[in-house]
Each structure stands twice: as C-alpha cells, then as structure tokens.
Request: fold
Amino acid sequence: MAGVYVDTSALGRVLLGEPGAAAILDELRHFDQHVASRLLRVELRRLALREGLLDSADQLLSGVALLPVDEAVLGAAETVAPASMATLDAVHLITALRLAADELIDGLMTYDARLAGGAREHGLRVVAPEG
Reply:
C-alpha cells in the first residue's frame, strides 16, 4: 500500500484554491493512504478559521489519518537536524520519518522549503507536484 505524509503547506494550498491545488489533488490520488501528525488538523483549521473555510478544511481532513503528537515525537523533534528547521516542521518531520522507518509512507508532500530540505537530508522522498 502506497502512503504519503501530507503537511499543511500542501493541504493549505488546496483549501485556499491556490495555483497547483488541482495538481496536489491529482497526485494524492496516486496514494492509497494519506497520513499526518495531529498537528495538521490544528494548523489547517486555524487557517480555515481565518478564511471562513472550516467546513472545507474538515472535508480535506476527513481523508487523512492523523497520528497523535506524543512525548517520543516531541522529544525527537527537539534535536532533529537541520537546526534551521522551524519547531512545528520538526514535529512533522519526525512523524514522517517514523512512518517511513516502518515502511508506511513512500514520501512527504510539502511545499515548505526547510521541511523539504530536512526530509531530503534524512533520505525521505519529497513530493511537490507543480501545476
């Protein structure tokens, strides 16, 4: 089963109808499973709240398996390389790396440059369709 970790920069583009949203949805169809940290729900719903799009955010989230943020994830996020990575991105990266280690995902979908760089540094494939 092919899975992909989806971060907020990808689903946020879809939520806001930004350029490339159709390409993102098309690429997601190539994966049997979409997974993310529970953090995605907080970030996407906060964005949706600002834009008056909560129902749309909830629709997008319904297709994503959300994993809890636990002490082990938080502890690992404290020191994951690269040091330049933002705090919440470190939580996303650690969650994705753990899923990849268990062979549950084939890549990480993100448009965040620092997160993408961190994923590549750890050998994780980055998915970022253009369109």
